[in-house]
Amino acid sequence: MTKHNRISSEPTLGNPSRRHLLTGSAVALAAGGLAGLSRTTFAGEVEPAAKAVAGKPLPAYVAWKDPASMIVHTSSTLETKRSAFGTSVITPAEQLYIRNNLPAPDASIIADRDAWEVRIEGVAKPSTLSLKQLKGIGLETTAMVLQCSGNGRGLFPTKASGTAWAVGAAGCVVWSGVPVRDLVAALGGVTDGMVYMTGSGGEKIPEGLDPKSVMVERSVPLKAMGDALLAWEMNGAPIPLAHGGPLRLIVPGYTGVNNIKYIKRLAFTLEQTDAAIQKTGYRLSPPGQKGDPSQPSVWEMAAKSWINSPAPEAGVVAAGQTLIKGVAFGGVNAVKGVEVSIDGGESWQAAKFVGPDLGRYAWRQFVLSVKLAPGSYTIASRVTDVLGNQQAERSVENTGGYNNASWRDHALKITVA
Length: 417
Ligand SMILES: Nc1nc2c(c(=O)[nH]1)N[C@H]1C(S)=C(S)[C@@H](COP(=O)(O)O)O[C@H]1N2
Ligand SMILES: [Mo]
What we know:
Elements (H helix, E strand, L loop, with lengths): L1 H8 L6 H39 L15 E5 L2 E4 L17 E2 L17 E5 L5 E4 H4 L5 E8 L22 E10 H7 L9 E6 L9 H4 L2 E5 L7 E6 L2 E2 L9 E3 L12 E7 L6 H4 L24 E6 L10 E10 L5 E7 L7 E2 L1 E3 L9 E9 L2 E11 L26 E5 L1
Parallel strand pairs: 4-13
Antiparallel strand pairs: 1-2, 2-3, 4-5, 6-7, 7-10, 8-9, 8-13, 10-11, 10-12, 14-15, 15-19, 16-17, 16-20, 18-19, 20-21
Helix pairs in contact: 1-2
Bound molecules: the ligand Nc1nc2c(c(=O)[nH]1)N[C@H]1C(S)=C(S)[C@@H](COP(=O)(O)O)O[C@H]1N2 and molybdenum atom.
GO biological process, one term: sulfur compound metabolic process
Cofactor: Mo-molybdopterin
Protein name: Sulfite oxidase
């Protein structure tokens, strides 16, 4: 309407012929333009609103998740919204992210959980054990940050291909199961000279594909065995199928991909598996270069923290005393402290940890109370682990966009009024 009025009023200043011409086109514009405008208005108002409420619907296999907490990127990549992270340490199953490299197995595999079998190789007495048998061998409970290797990919200055995760491809989860070291002891120990622990996922390989090209099979250094579990429980309940039930390999301190869901084989091996997901996938390759075995594999997580609140997506922050809240973890080491900056990293103040300390592999929630006057702020957080390793300002960019723990990339710009 504004546009129409402006155009039709303009010709009054010109000569009559021009005025006629413009009036005519103004009428045409008004007719076409208004129709166009109303379409735009309709789309503009209805579409985003519908998106905000529903987004992409939850895929059927995780229909039990909390839709209000999840960003559905694709049916195999679901992210926890920053605003959904609570402040009481544990991430509930309904809010935990999902990442599947292959379609999840059929629910029939959890019909009789205790009957699930896992093959153990590379030990003195190679064996096939049922979940029921595993439950009799040993028990340990570990709280651990489960974080996709690509969490933070979308925050790298250069956009790497792959799901543009922000911070929500991570959660803090409690796992219960048998320590791998107890299992190995029960089977006579690891065969001499083995270098890696290799876990294989229990998915069916789609017909016609070379198994090695798609199977989820990962090798980690043998030392990772020390705190690893074969877990059947998550946050106090049997592990949901979507999160790897009935049995999952948990490798504390290692990125998501190394934590094999529905594990069907655990082998101690001389070499890393030659499955593509290990050989060329999940490698830290220089931008533009393909992955190959000469490049570092994505294994241990780096010390990392981020702020969950206040966040720009929640809108303008009211001036005054403000609680800045977030999470901090050390990857493979416990955290010692975390600092917050409200001036883009020029100065830092120590934040306070809140809630119980669930051990070296868990994250800790933190809070800092600051008085904010109206203005714009770049807020950031930076964790230090017990060995004195400080969260890096920048992470090394790589083709896959893995391991982004940069405090600068995770800084948030907020407006206070
Ligand atoms: N068997 C199997 N294990 C797997 C995967 C998979 O596709 N199949 N995906 C891996 C990746 S890349 C990640 S980030 C985590 C995701 O775990 P979640 O879906 O329980 O959050 O599982 C890992 N383990
Ligand atoms: Mo992942």
